[in-house]
């Protein structure tokens, strides 16, 4: 039979209707003033780069945050849910080169297109707080912060070996180099160049950044571990070996009265220094250049080691490099016993890690043992492990033992020897106890156009010797020229614009030139979420009182790929602003969530892979609600999602069922308003029990578990239960007040996931006002009490069905129930069940081959 037109769900009609209504109500998604008396909730997704088109990966990310925002509005919170644009960056320049379109024009047109898509998806953003990082009203404050950091010694300029991407024609921060390649061009090997660059002294906060991770219990442990490893704290000793004097004279740098040449090494095991049988230098170490200057054969060998490092970076695993080295013919003096040890150059020693030099102790380090064995270097045991004889098969590494063959330190434990050796080094001036970090200062100079101009000038007159001179605050912002020719050639395009470069010295009034480097775009995203609280402030980056109310962010959502690049920078920026007295919080984010990627055709969805699914296409075919709900239903939000168009269609069919069910019984529900219900019995009790169990489960999901896939599955089960009672509902066996409670609560539970459908059904039920201001349903504890448990059953980690078992069911009972389910039997027919994993009272997962 043809479907009744009055009961046909038509998102193409319903969704534009509500989009227009919501657009006409700017207060709908707006945060209220602090004085409103409600508890606050700041939920935020990482701001997108305006590439011109959203894809299904964006839909998933922003649907997670939007569901949380809508839920918290219904829980009575004052919610801030803003949106902005990470609008500077290299892609805009590349587009300008390719299409001859100015970056500003290209970027702003993309923003308009993506904003239209966000609105069509029904995202509940407060557009009154919108920020665009490429506009002067925002990047002015980037410049202001730069000047404050310069005043505090946190912004400085130095010549440094930097990462250079030939494809981008600009410098990259260490964090932007992934396995030796540019983070934007995974096939482009990053080169090393010596350039004068601007840096932020993030290392000044290294220990505090590390300590702060222990307080972030609302962050995934994976993210905290990544940051700990990147900061890389090591406790140890810096010790100076000395270049042997006769050799120094031989290379012509030894003059009477000049201090001996020191070779500083860092070691975490100074107690083993009497076992050092060589010193090894990185190929790029400054002393190596001196050695090779007069030795062409050595230079050729060192160049080969550098080439090996480059190839290892290209392979993506420098740590697994086959170890090679060459002897320099020079020797170093061990400062503790005066012993001469040969100096080698090794390909596995990195110039930018530690001091670029190590002492090699092959008896007590596996890597050193491998190298010494390969090249026939001596192996000298100096630690006797506790409770073991000296007859030890090498190599071995001892965390604790007793020193031997170590002169005056013989007989001491490793810990005692380390403390005493550090004191001797400090007293005699050849070393000290120290802490080192893998974390390096943040290089923020970029030789590109489309970024924040660095607000510094260089005097060409009286102040030439004063170094960089800050632009006064009252001359901010230093505007980025809009009409500029952009080419792929190296160096900043700004340097080729005399009208930008030529300026006046703020100190003496003489001629000066501007800094032509622009800032790393991670500067923009390190503090943007503070600007949201006061986005239109023309006198300060934000009002500190507003930040005090809203911060820290209660829930931050974004991909794990930003665990280092973005999150550690934003934590650093927060601590700097705290020390400036602008804010009081130590950390920007209370809870952080990393969503999984969206996969299509076996790859992460991206333009470069050509596997992008446009939400416009999905909306045209199935509606925005279907695209949103599917992105949350298809997989747990922290797992990768394999995008399947059939899945979107399936969710669309489910929403149509909700539409038909609710509109069919809406008259009975409206009739129940104001009526008092009797104590439920029979079918009414059964339906209400299922309803309140569902309310309890979904509320718990929102409070921490975030199992939105099983949340939506639970709503589907509730709908099935109600539809199964269709005959009783049609016959009037279910009293109108119960029908009203069932349908009204169903709509409220679905509100965070399908806002368009819910708005229409809310009106259909005769409710007034926005569903966002309706209280979230509360589970009746007695009705929600379960005599049985609903156990999700997965096959190879993907949800297939749910079975019911007694609350006291053991693992075997759960396994039997899962295997007996019809859906499971159909899925495993003709296949082998390799393993059954049972999590008591929670889950059954079948590993099927």
What does the model show?
The longest helix has 27 residues, at 645-671. A hairpin with a 6-residue loop joins strand 13 (325-333) and strand 14 (340-346). With 849 residues, the chain is of the alpha+beta class. Helix 20 runs antiparallel to helix 21, helix 20 (682-705) runs parallel beside helix 23 and helix 21 (708-724) packs antiparallel against helix 23. The two termini are 42 Å apart. It contains 27 helices and 34 strands. 38% of the residues lie in helices and 18% in strands.
- Unreliably modeled segments: 1-5, 247-258
End-to-end Cα distance, whole Å, is: 42 Å
The backbone outline, from C-alpha atoms, is: globular
Q: So how many helices? A: 27
**Estimated share of beta-strand residues:** 15-25%
| Secondary structural class | alpha+beta
Query: What's the average pLDDT?
Result: 90
Largest sheet: 7 strands, mixed
| Gyration radius, in Å | 33 Å
**Helix content estimate:** 25-40%
Number of strands: 34
Task: Offer a concise description of the structure.
The protein has 849 residues and is α+β, with helices and mostly antiparallel strands. It has 27 helices and 34 strands.
Question: What structural keywords apply?
Answer:
849 residues; alpha+beta; 7-stranded mixed sheet; 4-stranded parallel sheet; 27 helices; 34 strands; globular; disordered N terminus
């Amino acid at each position: 039979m043809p479907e009744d037109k009055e009961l046909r769900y038509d998102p193409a009609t319903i969704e534009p209707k509500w989009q227009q209504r919501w657009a006409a109500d700017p207060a709908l998604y707006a945060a209220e003033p602090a004085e409103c008396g409600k508890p606050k909730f700041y939920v935020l997704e990482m701001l997108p780069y305006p590439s011109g088109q959203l894809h299904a990966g964006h839909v998933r990310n922003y649907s997670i945050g939007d569901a949380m925002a809508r839920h918290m509005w219904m829980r009575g919170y004052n919610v801030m849910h803003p949106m902005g644009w990470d609008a500077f960056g290299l892609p805009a320049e590349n587009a300008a080169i390719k299409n001859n379109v100015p970056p500003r024009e290209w970027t702003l047109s993309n923003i308009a297109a993506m904003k239209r898509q966000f609105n069509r998806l029904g995202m509940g953003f407060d557009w009154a707080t919108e920020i665009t990082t490429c506009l002067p009203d925002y990047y002015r404050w980037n410049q202001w912060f730069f000047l404050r950091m310069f005043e505090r010694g946190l912004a400085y300029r130095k010549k440094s070996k930097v990462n250079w991407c030939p494809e981008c024609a600009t410098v990259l921060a260490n964090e932007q180099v992934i396995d030796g390649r540019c983070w934007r061009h995974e096939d482009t090997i990053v080169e090393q160049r010596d350039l004068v660059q601007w840096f932020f002294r993030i290392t000044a906060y290294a220990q505090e950044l590390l300590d702060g991770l222990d307080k972030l219990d609302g962050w995934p442990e994976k993210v905290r571990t990544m940051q700990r490893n990147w900061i890389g704290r090591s406790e140890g000793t810096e010790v100076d070996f000395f270049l042997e004097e006769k050799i120094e004279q031989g290379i012509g740098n030894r003059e009477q009265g000049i201090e001996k040449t020191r070779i500083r090494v860092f070691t975490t095991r100074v107690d083993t220094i009497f076992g050092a049988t060589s010193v090894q230098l990185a190929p790029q170490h400054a002393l190596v250049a001196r050695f090779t200057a007069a030795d062409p054969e050595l230079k050729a060998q060192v160049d080969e080691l550098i080439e090996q490092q480059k190839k290892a970076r290209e392979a993506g695993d420098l740590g697994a490099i086959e170890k090679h080295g060459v002897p320099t013919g020079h020797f170093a003096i061990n400062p503790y016993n005066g012993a001469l040890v040969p100096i080698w150059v090794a390909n596995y020693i990195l110039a930018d890690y530690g001091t670029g030099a190590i002492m090699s102790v092959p008896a007590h380090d596996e890597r050193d043992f491998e190298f010494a064995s390969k090249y026939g270097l001596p192996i000298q045991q100096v630690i006797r492990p506790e409770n073991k004889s000296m007859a030890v098969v090498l190599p071995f590494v001892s965390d604790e033992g007793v020193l031997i063959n170590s002169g005056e330190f013989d007989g001491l434990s490793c810990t005692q020897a380390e403390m005493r050796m550090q004191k001797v080094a400090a007293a005699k001036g050849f070393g000290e106890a120290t802490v080192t970090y893998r974390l390096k200062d943040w290089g923020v100079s970029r030789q590109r156009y489309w970024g924040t101009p660095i607000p510094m000038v260089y005097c060409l007159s009286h102040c030439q010797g004063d170094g960089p001179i800050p632009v006064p605050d009252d001359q901010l912002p230093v505007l980025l020229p809009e009409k500029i020719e952009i080419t792929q050639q190296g160096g900043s395009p700004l340097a080729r614009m005399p009208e930008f470069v030529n300026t006046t010295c703020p100190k003496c009034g003489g001629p000066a030139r501007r800094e032509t480097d622009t800032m790393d775009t991670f500067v923009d995203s390190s503090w943007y979420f503070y600007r949201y609280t006061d986005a239109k402030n023309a006198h300060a980056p934000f009002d500190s009182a507003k930040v005090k109310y809203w911060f820290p962010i209660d829930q931050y959502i974004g991909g794990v790929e930003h665990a280092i690049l973005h999150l550690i920078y934003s934590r650093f920026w927060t601590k700097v602003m705290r020390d400036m007295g602008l804010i009081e919080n130590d950390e920007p984010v209370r809870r952080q969530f990393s969503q999984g990627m969206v996969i299509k055709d076996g790859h992460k969805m991206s333009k470069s892979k050509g596997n992008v699914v446009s939400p416009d296409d999905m909306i045209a075919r199935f509606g925005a609600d279907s695209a949103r709900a599917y992105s949350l239903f298809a997989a747990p939000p922290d797992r990768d999602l394999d995008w399947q168009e059939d899945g979107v269609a399936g969710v669309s069919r489910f929403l149509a069922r909700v539409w038909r069910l609710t509109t069919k019984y809406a008259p009975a529900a409206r009739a129940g308003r104001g009526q008092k219900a009797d104590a439920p019995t029979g079918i009414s009790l059964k339906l209400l029990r299922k309803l309140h169990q569902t309310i309890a489960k979904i509320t718990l999901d929102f409070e921490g578990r975030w199992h939105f896939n099983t949340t939506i599955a639970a709503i589907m089960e509730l709908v099935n239960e109600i539809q199964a009672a269709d005959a009783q509902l049609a016959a009037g066996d279910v009293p109108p007040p119960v029908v009203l409670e069932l349908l009204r609560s169903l709509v409220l539970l679905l509100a965070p996931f399908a806002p368009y459908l819910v708005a229409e059904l809310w009106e259909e039920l005769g409710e007034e006002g926005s569903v966002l201001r309706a209280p979230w349903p509360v589970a009746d504890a007695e009705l929600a009490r379960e005599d049985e448990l609903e156990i999700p059953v997965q096959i190879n980690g993907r949800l297939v069905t749910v079975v019911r078992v007694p609350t006291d069911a053991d693992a075997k009972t759960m396994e039997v129930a899962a295997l007996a389910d019809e859906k499971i039997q159909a899925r495993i027919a003709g296949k082998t069940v390799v393993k059954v994993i049972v999590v008591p009272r929670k889950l059954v997962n079948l590993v099927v081959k």
